[in-house]
Write a structure and sequence with these properties.
single chain, alpha+beta, three-stranded antiparallel sheet, two-stranded antiparallel ribbon
């Protein structure tokens, strides 16, 4: 799963996105001037993640023929602090090859969340300009668009399953 924040002018949308571009969790309403890491740490999601109440799966074997177990983690960008539950890229320009490869692969994983935000904002072009509404209405608009986005992605998923299995 990917973790990302997106500014909708003065209202921040913090989100977790799965590999099907669906929003798994959103937090809407922080002010754009706040530090991204502190916005994340004030969310209920962060509190549940650090308390162990999110039912994150236990570490699993990397491959069947290996004894290496890897934990399930969220992928974030440099705005987030590094924890045992959240990965972020290495800082700096003069990195070893191993660190550069790690950053590249982490960036590829983060593309899902970037694309989900792109799909959301391009589908509802209201996000291409400032929302000239009150903060409570802006929060409701963002939440409604996220729900409609997820509904459409879910329907695409169901259609693919029905098409493959021949169910109508």
């Amino acid at each position: 799963m990917n973790l990302k924040y997106k500014y909708f002018f003065s209202v921040v949308l913090m989100a977790v996105v799965d590999s099907n571009y669906r929003f798994v969790y959103i937090d809407v309403g922080a002010y754009g001037e706040d530090c991204d890491s502190s916005v994340f740490q004030r969310t209920n999601f962060y509190k549940m993640l650090t308390d162990g109440r999110l039912n994150v799966p236990q570490p699993a074997l990397f491959r069947e023929d290996s004894d290496v177990k890897l934990p399930f983690v969220l992928v974030g960008d440099q705005a987030f602090s590094l924890t045992d539950k959240v990965l972020r890229p290495y800082k700096g320009h003069f990195l070893s090859d191993t660190k550069r490869i790690f950053n590249y692969r982490l960036c590829r994983a983060r593309r899902f969340v970037e694309c989900a935000f792109g799909i959301l904002s391009n589908k509802w072009r209201i996000f291409h300009r400032p929302l000239n509404v009150t903060k409570p209405l802006a929060k409701s608009i963002v939440k409604a668009c996220v729900v409609l986005h997820n509904l459409e992605k879910w329907m695409e998923h169901i259609t693919k399953i029905c098409w493959k299995t021949g169910v109508s």
